[in-house]
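We treat protein structure as text, and this decision shapes the records that our systems exchange. The tokens are whole numbers drawn from a learned vocabulary of local backbone shapes. Below, we set out a record of this kind in full and without editing:
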Amino acid sequence: MHLVSNGKHNESIPSKRYFTIGEVSELCDVKSHVLRYWEQEFPSLSPAKRRGNRRYYQRHDVLLIRQIRSLLYEQGYTIEGARKKLLGDDVSNDNNLSSQLVNQLVSELEDVLTVLKKD
């Protein structure tokens, strides 16, 4: 797995369709109870729920959680401030998410290229 220099929460996201709360907790370096709390505080974070109310997150949810984590833990926003930043008309939010998606795709393509070169 390709690791970006800023730490565990910037790790490549595996190419899976769904992730459990435990997997997302590990990928984003955020405890499970914090993820459940953030679901209440950030309306755009709403993973699919299946049998027994189990949560299944998708790639866009993981990226959103990483963005929320960055706003709260690295940029010093309050929950209210982070919510407003995410919900606001600020175009930079879309650019930031797009940038994260592009970086993720580049990282995954580099991983594929490395595997192909081994053959």
Q: What stands out?
A: Residues 1-7 have pLDDT under 50 and may be disordered. The first strand starts at residue 48 and ends at 50. The chain has five helices and two strands. Residues 9 and 26 are 8 Å apart (CA to CA).
